[in-house]
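Hi P.,

Sorry for the delay on this. The queue was packed all week, but I finally got your sequence through. Input first:
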Amino acid sequence: MAESIIEFDRVVAGYSPSVTILNELTLDARKGEITLLIGPNGAGKSTVLKTLFGMLIPRSGEVRFEGKRINGKTQRQLLAEGIAFVPQGRNLFGSLSVRHNLELGGITLPRGELNGRIEEVLTQFPRIKERINNQASTMSGGEQKQLEVGRALLLRPRVLLIDEPSIGLSPKLVQDVMSLLRRLADNGTTVVMVEQNVRTALKYSNRALVLEMGRLALDRPASELLDDPNLNRLFLGGHAPAKENMGRGASADV
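Then the structure:
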């Protein structure tokens, strides 16, 4: 079993003092694996990523990266630690060129090192290399998503958080993005993903964590969950059967 690199220990978090999304959530993500977060709307999937990337500060509990507490660290500090985030939707500077978008992603790097990192990223994304001088807004949805991922990779993150990478993409481009994430994980990058296209994402993931009402309801190998006839119910909501092998931190009342 791979070593845990990310840990949530009884984390409580939300967007206001009166709205709690994560309810003493305990889970982990392991080195070099793709961990897929699934569950009904409002279960807390995206909130996990935002809490991991310092966009939300837990009210209680602890978030750890490589065994060290990271509660309250800034996004800049987390990037320096090796955690990168590709949020949902399009997050590019459309009027700027592909190269300028990449340069902004590596703005903290020395100029000489930045140029080398950009070339390194471009070798993984041949289509992006072909469009290097084009405006980002002229690229297809799939190309823009590749650019977002490539920009995140400039800092050589050890953990990549990605929220709904398939939104707006054709089935072929979804497969391309998932294959890219699988290659990254196989090369040692830990990926934590939220994805609405659950069946496709499960084919590329190592583990699936089912969230419900801000708690961990199920922790299963992705291949096992893919074959589970209860998958649709688990994704859309409903209690996990008591006989299921529930993961760490799971609660029978979620």
